[in-house]
Fold these 4 entries.
Entry 1:
Amino acid sequence: MHTLIPAFVLLIGSAVTIYLACEFFVNGVEWVGRKLAVGQKATGTILAAAGTALPESVVTFVAVAFGASAAQKALGVGAALGGPLVLSTIAYGLVGLILLITRQKLVKTAALCAEFKRLSTDQGWFLAIFAAKIGLGLIAFAYKPWLGILFLAAYAAYFWSEMRSSAAAQADEEDAALEPLRCARHSIDPPAWLAIVQTVIALVVIFAASRLFVSQLDVLGPRLGIKPQLLALLLSPIATELPETMNALIWVRQGKHSMALANISGSMMIQATVPTAFGLFFTSWRLDPPLVLAAGVTALAVAAMFIAFRRGMISRSFLAGMGLLYLVFVGGLFALRLST
């Protein structure tokens, strides 16, 4: 057992490092958004989401493009489905749980209700793209790899739509005071380049710590008797989505609920498109039963969020309850394993 202690220490240390780096990242990215005159929603859905999801997309690309075995390529495909599952269940659930623990309320102001409407549009985009993504995983035909271009185009369209709507909403947003830039605490108006440098350095640290976190899971899993397939589906996606979840929790702690929800929503859009495109380009993109189960639970979670956002029914308890859907996935996964 003592041989596991270094791995546990590194696991906990990397998680703490990710959280601290995310503190610098969200602070920096808010200033970058301010300097670029990007609205709060686009700061969450585009800048923050792209920053934390980019390293994961690179990892997926390496797995499917340069994987030496079918198992390595399969892990890349699994990551493309595991990410949205974790974000739509655990990430939303933790946001609701933190709101309950800190006794913060989602006051249904006109601005927040309008934000809910915009976020419901994001969920609608995701559902349409996700349905196509899953449908392609159930059939085989010669020209499937070329369809990866359409998923990249879909994210480009989403990016353009978000930036356009953000520009329209920018005038309606309050010029809320930001916390001082961490690397220039005594400056009330730090230069844009300094905000960008802080954000990039924090992102590099997040990427390195995330890779260390995942590597320690790979070490601990076999030693604790966890099969590689279960490790890939149950624990690895949680680890790879840790930065996005940390960002959201930090914004919730700061009372910036809209940015927290927007960050999760934007991260889901990236996970639904960019890794999928890589999977289509370099693999046969065929989904086995566990991945179909993950897709089904994800679709159910996002459909529930779409309806709740559209009707303005979002509450702390509702968000916290989203985490229970991940337990549904775990139960279904073990049932599948027992039946085979």
Entry 2:
Amino acid sequence: MPNPNMSPQKGAGSAHRTASAGKPVKKNLRKKKRIGALVALGITAFLIIAVVLVGIHLVNSFVDEKLGLLNIQTDTHETEEVFATAPLTEIEVPETVEEDIHGQLNEANLPLICDTKDVKNILLLATDARWNEAGLSDSMILVSINQKTKKIVLCSFMRDLLVKIPQEPHSSAAGNWEKLTHAHAYGGPHLTMATLKENYNIQVDYYAKINFYSFVELVDAMGGLDMELTADEIWFINDFMYDEEMVQIFSYYPKKQVENRAGLHKLDGLQALCHARNRRIGSDWARTQRQRLIIAQMAKQAKELPLAQLNNLLDTALPMITTNMPAELLKGMVWDSIGYFQYEFVNTRMPLDGTFTEVRYNIVPDLEKNCTDLYEKIYGEPAPKAQ
């Protein structure tokens, strides 16, 4: 007999049915929320991708525009230049010296310095050319960018290094003993690169060249160059800007004296050029060091420029540069350049102290010591020995 106290309360069944019916309603709401969140996430991702793609397109357009300002040489000869057709100097090499150099070239275990997956080598040339002549390479610096070690090695080659001019590419000095600086006068950057390969087993495929006199405009576009100077270096700058050649070439340029105090100075374009060409104090050895310091300081200041000034610097500098680097390679390096600003700069010189002799005002290096040391600085590993 049913217990009257256990009878179901009124409405209990309807409540049960409502709760049961509510479960799918909640599931549907959760499902809709998930779908909404996924749609919102998808739209956000699409917008981000779209913004990135538009940004890349704009940057690509900007890079293309700037690279179009460069003088890119696709031919193997700079036909607009006039090359020397007669020996610039008569260099007589003693037979014993010639035999020693030939022996080093043929027998020394010189490591091959060339481009690799991690390393890109570029030869920077600054010439003293006037008008349409090729001119001497007043400064020769091998720039080696190592993406693995995060280092950029700057190696200056002394102007007076004794070299034998190769047979190819053809020049009027083929087979002659010459100073390295003369190679450019006889055959431009391509003969200079071939001469490095012939004499030091350094295979450089790419170069960038600027005339020293364009350097003045470049420094001014940066807003000047901050350099630590000694009292002697200040004296030279103030004196050399009145050199007959400098006065003739830069007659239009206002000549300002550097304040006579040792320390940090902001140099204008003409003052910076005088400093870069100074080989009276410490001879050519000290000058190559000054030039490497100038390049490092220019790189440091460039990364700190406001965008508007950096854009002006590019518009000024790029038309002054001649290079044989393909546009696509240059574009790739532009994309990597932000990282380059964080790299360590390493300065060195060919030849190293104590690794050369001088023969009639020409420098004859110990090839194996110098090439081995340069290889290890560039690649960050021991130089391989030829078999």
Entry 3:
Amino acid sequence: MMPPAGGAGRLWHSARPMALKSTIYKAALQIADMDRGLYADHALTIALHPSETEERLMVRLLAFALQVPADDARGRLQFARGLSDTEEPDLWQHDLTGQLVHWIDVGQVDDRRLAKACGRAERVTLYAYAASVPVWWSALKGKLTRLRNLEVWQLPAEQSQALAALAERSMQLQLTIQDGTVWVGDATQSVEITPRRLWPET
């Protein structure tokens, strides 16, 4: 299409596409973690990155619930910039001295990122999801033998997809954790999730 004639043409040429903004989600979590003896409520505000799916956002939310500490003695677990900054994970925890206590990523990351994270943090946890995890993992696991402070978990694809169906701009969710199984529900439906540990191998 040709631009309009005259001065309007100059305006047409100078236009720039607007940057996409993150979408804000709010989640009220009621956590009953019987495995850790942790019972807590958390009001969270989460930014959905323009390139992020609701499935990934909900996996981040699940990671928070599974890893949030019982108290703030060594700092709070917080959402980091993740996709917006390659130097940050999806969630992290710093103690009062600034030491990086826990680095948490979701998705299928490479061994170099994991090795760098393990050199910076006391603990590193990764939650992988999607049907392609077995292929990714078969290529990765042989490179992790020296990473002693790393845990890798797999969420079955059908379970993470069911979790995504609970996503709303404003959510009230109950999470019950017992014997390694997680039940996540709202007022109308519930999803059962059983994370499988890939690393360290048992």
Entry 4:
Amino acid sequence: MLAEIAALALVVGGFVPDLKAPATYHPRDRAVSNWRLESARNLDAPIATLARALTKDAVKLPRCVRLNNYWCIKSARWNGKIATDNEGHVAFASAREGALVAARLLRRYYMDLGRTSARAIVTRWAPAECGTIAARPRLARAGATRPDGLSTRGIGNTLRARYLAAKGKGGGSAKLSRAAAPRIALMRAPSIAPGLGESAKPLPAMTASPLVRLASLGAPNTLPSAIQRPQICSSEALRIRNYAAKITEGVADGPDADLKLFDATGLPTPALARVMANMAAVEIGPMKPDFALIEKVVEEQAAAWRRKIGGASSE
């Protein structure tokens, strides 16, 4: 116990913290108040290296270390959650709470959502953040975003509408600059009398077309390019592929193979702890959580799942 207290004192800079104080979140630092203590207890690293990283170079550490969230889990109603940072990552009261949520989340992915392979898990756990979806069409005219929904150039941009809009609400004589007023095609003036107006030109013959019901029109074969499904950019595709490959280390043959994290009854296999360790190594690398923490959490959660399964089968 004395060695642990001495190590903790070294990590936090020469004083022994209050071990009973409740964890709080500091938005300015984007950190939980007890993250150094949790890191000293739960990260797998030599104490000298850990002390140096947690004091002198703390700002260089992955943000999820400072959130007691070694799996960079996003916000939801998780037990142990005390806050979220400005990007939605959960700040946990302890590293144990973060590990418990990671185990529960992986069970939901595997059992409920059918995401049994590393690639299937990663594409939802850490999805791509870039694509080629075009922005929705927006009006380019000035004032298109006015709260009253009216353009400053008038409804329909007609000549009279532009004139009324230029007058303003108070009836002033605000002038519309030439640069601001786009040219519009006016209708040809009708002939008032032969020789006094423009010479009339014959209009193209109008041909009747059969009525077409909108309901009878089929759906287009292809979607417009602006609303097609997003394409993962090359850098994100590489990141996902590398992440999936890391997950499978010591567990499966490839990123699309079944990880076999749970058996048919829903209880965890030894692969769950290994996959959790592999995922944390990606999320907070080069640091990693102590494997003993992960094993303890998996055993604790397995006992809870076993009780739940047993209770359901007895009903």
